[in-house]
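Narrative of activities, Objective 1.

The group set out to show that a structural description can be obtained from nothing but a protein's sequence at a throughput compatible with the screening campaign. Below is one input-output pair from the validation batch, recorded exactly as produced.
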Amino acid sequence: MLLYEFYIFFAYILCDTFTSSSKRCEPGSLNATLAAGKIILSFSQSRTQNIIAAAISVLEAGGVGLFFAQYRSDGLESCPYIYHALKSPIAKLSISKTVIGKWLSPRVADFSARGPRLKPDIAAQGVDILAAYIPVRKEKRSGYAILSGTSMSFPHVAGIAALIKSAHKNWSPAAIRSALVTTASQTGTYGLNIVEEGSTRKAADPFDMGGGLENPNKAVERGLIYDAGIEDYLQFLCGTGFSTKSVSGLTRTRVNCTKSRLNELNLNLPSITIPNLKRKVTVTRKVRNVGPIDSVYKATVHAPQGIKMKVKPQILSFNKTTQILPFKVTFFSNQKVYGDYRFGSLIWTDSKHIVRIPISVRAMFESYTDV
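Output recorded for this entry:
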């Protein structure tokens, strides 16, 4: 086997002055005299750092190779430590080999929209997807391309929704969404939490992935669903402050917002978000049993940090004549400072099904005089 040896010089040593731009191997930052014939080790300083630009910079400076240390990756941020530990580092190039193993996945892409303004309901595959592609003008392509984005994850979810609809023809769009959200997974390979690839590299929360990663098989075999119809959404619009005239004009239906309105927190979604909890708030939800007729579900609460939760009733018993049951969730907070959103979940379980909804709460205090 032929091995080729090259001395490794760190990017910040190969410049006239040590700057963050040289550390990132930005164009024009490297000393061509020192870089010629060397392999350069470049440290990414942010998740947007461009490895292609770094490679071009090394090539223009006469370098023969590039090691690109990704942002916050494996403790390689301490360049001086590595330099002093290895006075004469050597890189050896040999024939490549394929190592097969499980990749840590899934991960929420850094470009994926985040909450609270664009809170997702569900996460699905959307990075580097082999997809049909229409050539632009005279562009010559095979008709397929590797693409990323919401336009790639959407077809996955749409296909799962069609699968659920084929199995449950009388389900509403809201019921299908409920089945997707309440069966989603929050863990990936090796049982580890799904992580997000933003600047924090933290465990993903409901503002990153909604309920979690879609699970088609579990979604089809759902036990409980959070359903909502047209009337629920009309009352919701009235409850958010729209007038009778506005709602009627928008929906082209007869609505009386003075008689029929719904607290915006009580729209029967498969999630609960409270943006301004002051001491105590009670939220109402209802679930429909679509599993065995005589099912009994018990509530399990994972309250957001610093928040107390109480579910009433804690047990839902269904029978032949009772297939829809309401319940209330009360949130308590004694915090005396403004906080950011904290996350938790509410789970209903029987002997077979696990029905989970994500919870997001931001606690606030009423006035400075309360402190």
